[in-house]
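User: Here's a chain of 180 residues. Predict its fold as tokens.
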Amino acid sequence: MDKTSVLSQLGFSEKEISVYLALLSLGPSPIRKIGERANVNRGTTHDALKNLQKEGLVSYYHKEKHQYFVAEDPVSLQSLVKRKKLELEETREGIETIIPELKSLFSGNESKPVVKYYEDDIGIRTILEDVLNQTEHTKEKEYRVYSSANIRPYLYKKYQKFTEDRIKRNIFVRAIAIGD
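Assistant: Prediction complete.
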């Protein structure tokens, strides 16, 4: 993986990455010089530096009426990843605590019919996952299906472990199958 794609996975924009890499190679520099090296206009360079500073990757100092920006040691990226990981874990825990409340809001809408439209293999997989997730929470743990020979070759192409997952969850199926 190249450095640009790794930095973009951290949530940095293309211009922020260009500014950061330019600053790393330049050393302490005024905003104009950083923008020229990064090939980014001055205003965007300033915004990028501000965001990089918030993430702890850039600092600045004043010298002779000019502001000089300095890239922090790249090891600070590890601290950033740890912080983001911690924030993500806190978000996951928060989600876990509010799911019951959200489900109670959602269950109030059960009487209303819902129509969903799916396309392609990804849509079929989404439907099959939904069948398992919804059926798993029913009293009978059973669903009914109509199946014809025409659709069977396409049905499990993107979710080949569907039957295995269904059995693991103790979900039963009643099928009306037409054709071979």
